[in-house]
Amino acid sequence: MTILIIDGQGGGIGKGIIEQLRRKNYDDKIIAVGTNSIATSAMLKAGADAGATGENPVIYNSSKADIIAGPIGIISANSMYGEISPQMAQAVSESKAHKILIPISKSNIHIISTTEKPMQAYIEETAECILNEICNKNNTDC
């Protein structure tokens, strides 16, 4: 099972997701792709198995991942202050991977019926959702 974490800016969201997964003893492959080197570096320091930076790694790894996680902006062209190119958003959106997205108002996308929470709560919930998805795909109790 391959988990792809995509983040930009300073990589804090991706870093938090990876830290939560590692705290919960998830030891399968986590690939971190940052839209910039700072984001990639933060996610690698958090425990990602591999990391890459930029448009092509997002496009390439989106087609190979089982699960993609990150801020909701990764599916919206030109979001995250222009860090997500139309090609990146298309690759993530069209990927067959299960997508677990954190709602962030900075992306100018508002999901109705979500509750405003502190970012740490979203990160913890995302890690749990990833682990539950893995259990469902493997037909195992976790």
What can you tell me about this protein's structure?
The chain has 142 residues and is α/β, with parallel strands linked by helices. 44% of the residues lie in helices and 17% in strands. It has a five-stranded parallel β-sheet, sandwiched between helices. Helix 1 links the parallel strand 1 (3-7) and strand 2. It is globular, with a radius of gyration of 14 Å. The model has no long low-confidence stretch (mean pLDDT 92).
SS elements, strand count? 5
- Biggest sheet strand order reads 3-2-1-4-5
Please, how many helices? 6
Biggest β-sheet, characterized? 5 strands, parallel
* Structure class: alpha/beta
What percentage of residues falls in helices of 4 or more residues? 40-55%
Strand content: 15-25%
Chain-averaged pLDDT = 92
The H/E string reads EHEHEHEHHEH
Quote the distance from N terminus to C terminus.
15 Å
- Give the uncertain stretches in residue-range form: none
Rg, nearest Å: 14 Å
User: How would you describe the shape?
Assistant: globular
